[in-house]
Amino acid sequence: LEAKAGAEESLVTSGHSVVAARLRARFTGPSGWASERMAGLSGYFALCELAKQVENDWPSTQAALFALQQSIIHANDLVITSTCDPSSQSEVHAALRSFVDSLPASPPSITEAWGARLPLENEAILVPTQVNYVGKGTNLFTEAGYDYNGSAAVVTGYLGKTHLWNAVRVSGGAYGAFCSFDPFTGAFAQYSYRDPNLSNTVKAYDGSAGFLRSVQLTEGDLHKAIVATIGDVDSYQLPDAKGRTATKRYLHGITDEYRQARRDEILGTTVKDFRSLADAIEAAQAKGVVSVVAGEQSVQECQAEFGFKTYSPLSAS
After folding, report:
1. 30-39 and 41-56 helices cross at what angle (nearest 10)?
2. Helix 296-306 vs helix 199-206: angle between axes, to the nearest 10 degrees?
3. What pLDDT shows up at residue 110?
4. Measured CA distances, 149 to 87, 186, 200, 276 (Å)
5. What is the gyration radius of the CA atoms in the chain, in angstroms?
6. Label partner for 276 (CA 20 to 30 A): which of 67, 188, 240, 252?
7. Angle made by CA atoms 13, 16, 17, in degrees to the nearest 5
8. Within 13 Å of residue 62, how many CA atoms lie on the same side as its CB?
9. Cα(300)–Cα(317) distance, rounded to whole angstroms?
10. Which whole-number Å values give the CA distances from 34 to 1, 5, 26, 75, in the listed order?
11. Residue 41 and residue 311 in contact, taking contact as beta carbons nearer than 8 Å
12. 146, 277 contact by CB (below 8 A)
């Protein structure tokens, strides 16, 4: 019930995160789909159902939870990262070995395949709010044939700080606007935070390609954008953050050589790279999906334009 209450609060106060998860579930493959099933809108619906099952049939619910525990907690294919002082390494590793040895050796067989992604349809998640969280996403690899280059990090960073900031935040009145581009899956999305608009914000997103194609960049503008991006890539990290980063790089197969190649691409960004990403965004735009967390009136006003499939999650509680 505590998790359910927290999810309900997030629907209203952190709608941009809900929208981001829904778009990732459409454009990043099984990983985004699974994350949304566990911690997104689908996860919230599952919590609502679980609360009912706990109340009405605890023995069956307990058995299902135990089966889930067995499928997750086992020694096979386990990856553990330890971040510690070299003098403590032997002691820490011994403790970890003892822990691993206490786990079951293998999970039970799993026959159900994971779904690849959510349906590619515009959607509106209705909540009691006077502001909206508006997102639009697509996949630049599959829909535009874009080959990822480190310069894309520079371009998307510049897009968020200029066009989206001015069109969605300054002119549109939203509290925030930003974009993301996943270098591993090709998922590209633009979002707004606490936004009084809906249709006009999507129009601003659709104008991003034209902005990147026509923007006149001075040498100073380009230099600032590159420096800002490199600062994010090589930012200072505390030990716990270093451990998390090392784990992610291991799981993604990111080598030092890969990182240096991307760094070189960032440092070598040119105006041509802005135009190249603009072409990809424009080519994939028609296959984009709009996802919003919004009030009912805002959705009704735009229903004819977007043909939203609507969800009313708080009524499910």
Report:
1. 50
2. 50
3. 61
4. 40, 11, 30, 10
5. 22
6. 252
7. 90
8. 5
9. 23
10. 22, 21, 11, 21
11. yes
12. yes
Do residues 75 and 157 lie in contact, with contact meaning Cβ atoms separated by under 8 Å?
A: no
Tokens at 218, concatenated: 């001075």
Q: Which two tokens stand for residue 172?
A: 């549109």
What 8-state DSSP symbol labels residue 168? I
311, containing H or E segment: strand 309-311
pLDDT means over runs of 10, the chain (317 residues): 87 94 94 91 93 93 89 83 90 92 76 75 96 98 96 97 97 96 96 98 98 96 95 88 92 93 97 97 96 97 97 81
Model pLDDT, residue 125: 97
Separation CA 49–CA 47 (nearest Å): 5
Question: What's the length of the chain?
Answer: 317
Contact 116, 31 (CB under 8 A): no
- pLDDT (0 to 100) of residue 234: 82
Give the C-alpha separation, 259 to 244, whole Å: 16
DSSP 1: -
Instruction: Give the burial class of 155: count Cβ atoms within 10 A of its Cβ; 0-12 exposed, 13-18 middle, 19 or more buried.
Output: buried
- Report the relative pairing of strands 123-126 and 309-311 from DSSP bridges: parallel
Does residue 147 sit in helix, strand or coil? coil
Residue 211 has a pLDDT of 98
pLDDT of res. 235? 85
**Quick one: pLDDT at residue 158?**
97
pTM: 0.90
Look up tokens 């270093």; give the residue: 242
| Cα dihedral value 87, 90, 95, 100, nearest 10 | 140
Instruction: Quote the CA–CA distance of 247 and 79 in Å, as a whole number.
Output: 8
